[in-house]
Amino acid sequence: MREHKKLIAFRKRGLLSQKKFDDFLQLARRIAVFEPGTKKWVISWEKIGSISLEELKEILDRLSQYTDLDQHAVEKILEEYSKRYVAECTQIQIDSKLVVRSCGERLKLLLEEENLSTWFERRGSFLLVRSIVYLPSLREKLAKHGLQVSFDEKLITTTLKRMQGRLYASFYRMDKPLYTLLSKVGTLYYNEERVKLGPSKEYMGTELVRRKIRVYEIDWRRGLFITSIGLIERLETALKKLGFKVINDIEELPKTKVPMEKRFNLFPHQEEALTLWLRKKRGTIAIFTRGGKSFIALGAIYELRLPTLILVPTRELILTWVKYLQEYLGVPKTFIGRMGGGEKTLRPITVSTYNSAVRYIKELTGKFELAIFDEAHHVPASTFKEVALNIDSLYRMALSATPKRRDGNENLLYTLCGDLIYTLTYADLLRLKMVAPIERFDALFVESEEEKLNTLLKLVQKHKDAKTIIFTQRLDTAKKIYEELKKRGFKVELVTGETHSVKREMAFKRFLDGRSNIIVSTTVLDEGITVPDAEVAVIYEGTGEARQMIQRIGRVLGYHPGKTAKIYEIININDPKEKNAYRRRSWIRELYMVEGLEKYVKYTKEGREDELSPTFQRHIDTF
Residue 185 is part of which domain span? Predict the structure, then answer.
């Protein structure tokens, strides 16, 4: 055997049986390369670098039986191994196939110390990293031990593009651990509320059933993850947390040429909410009823000047938004599109109901960069989530008085439209003098429809000089109450879905002028129609939906000095549906019965509103 500095070689000794020769050949190939000229096997330190110390000792011990390797040569190999890969090794190289090229023994020791052995696998004489997902953490963890890990940064670089209305994320390679991560990003959960029926098919309330939605595709060959644009923040967050470099290569749609003139000023809280939203151009804003959420959205439209889709739950809200766009932004009518209520016109700024957006989702693709989800607590419902998942708008603003839902689906809203970034409660609005304090919030229980009507008549008589709105669900109920009040000489208006908009405006004008002081209405006033302010709200019929109750209460919360609001619910306890609806919405009372409210009412009635309790210090939650 001959040694030249670090060159160590050996050759086979004598004749070997076929079995022993095969064993010799396998062992020699693990640590050496054959030189035809000298007919010797020369030690390869590159090969040895991927072998642990225990494995190397075993290989050398077995090779000593078949070759001229003596104890001196073995010690020399082990000494050199220790110098190269245990004591002095400070760097390992990982190639594009994730093969570890050096520092075998030291790396093995550190992996055991950091509990990272499962990140690797043995492939013949090579050590492989199982996934590109582990590379950033591996580099970070081993750096603490003075061992530098180097690899091509393209291995952990992801590029995001928008194509055919979908988000495309490209990776250098797709492997199982990466797939597991991406499948979590692209799998959403929501609760579905189901009606429970008794043995005789009687209504027994509702229950929540958890559902799973898979909203992604994987192209293994091209290394692509394809999902909804709504999940872009969720994807970026997950990848950056792992240490990936994310390149956002999504091109913003061109600015619109819509003439605009800002004809409003934002209150400080609205300015703050808009500023927070503009940081990411994404997020949910929760401002209680009468806090001016719509003006924050108008501010965003004015600042971005991008094609905008405004999504609303009702046809009435389409009219409200069109009015706002014309009146407060000076947008000409020809630049405003409408989808819903029998209309279907797309313009640079379009207002659509959620239902219409679902129906024509393909026609909306690629046309709008800013999506405003008004009354966004609707979005997690089955129809509305289809819009949020399939619309390809990059920028999103969700507006709601109460994003928190009884079914817990607000998390789906935050995922698809952006996290909750700004909150303003009823107590905050009280301090800002934007709403009136609630003097009465009473639930009155009756045992028959006759008693219910009589209770209503007593309430109306008690507040005969106050402006009152009576809310019903059914048209026949509204008509019956209207006729009863009119027969008794009360100055009353009837406003339902059947009431023409011109007649409705005339009724509102009489209500404002004092020629009438009672409005009886169905659900048409729940959302989307600007209603004159009142002092008393009577919930004669209602659902268990928080949205409806809060909107109805909001009709009597308009602020002016000295005003207090009164709210009454009349519930027939012998009607299972009424009783259950009341139980489902009863928690809403807690939103208004804030600490110190009684004192606040007292000060308001005495004209001492400036002497507010410290309880009402403004509280803004930003995330």
Answer: 157-248
Give me the residues paired with residue 373 across strands.
311, 398
Record the tokens describing residue 280, joined without a space. 């990411």
Chain centroid to CA 229: 12
- The b-or-e profile of 106-124 (16+ CB within 10 A means b, else e) is bbbbbbeeeebeebbeeee
Residue 535 DSSP symbol: S
* Number of residues in the chain: 623
Distance of alpha carbon 57 from alpha carbon 77, whole angstroms: 10
Domain end position, chosen among 123, 151, 179: 151
Sign (positive or negative) of CA dihedral 362, 363, 366, 371: negative
Report residue 613 as tokens.
């309790």
Q: Are residues 482 and 533 in the same domain?
A: yes
More confident residue, 590 or 157: 157
Q: Which residues pair with 350 in a beta bridge?
A: 309, 337
For residue 59, the one-letter residue type is I
φ, ψ of residue 487 in degrees (nearest 5): -65, -30
| Same-domain status, 142 and 243 | no
Express each pLDDT in 379-436 by its tens digit. Answer: 656 777 889 999 999 999 999 887 777 667 788 889 999 999 999 988 888 888 888 9
Looking only at the bridges linking them, the beta strands covering 343-345 and 336-340 are antiparallel
Could you give the angle at the alpha carbon of 261 between the alpha carbons of 260 and 265, nearest 5°?
A: 130
State yes or no: pLDDT of 90 exceeds 80.
Answer: no
Which of 100, 130, 151 is the C-terminal boundary of a domain? 151
Beta bridge partners of 188: 213
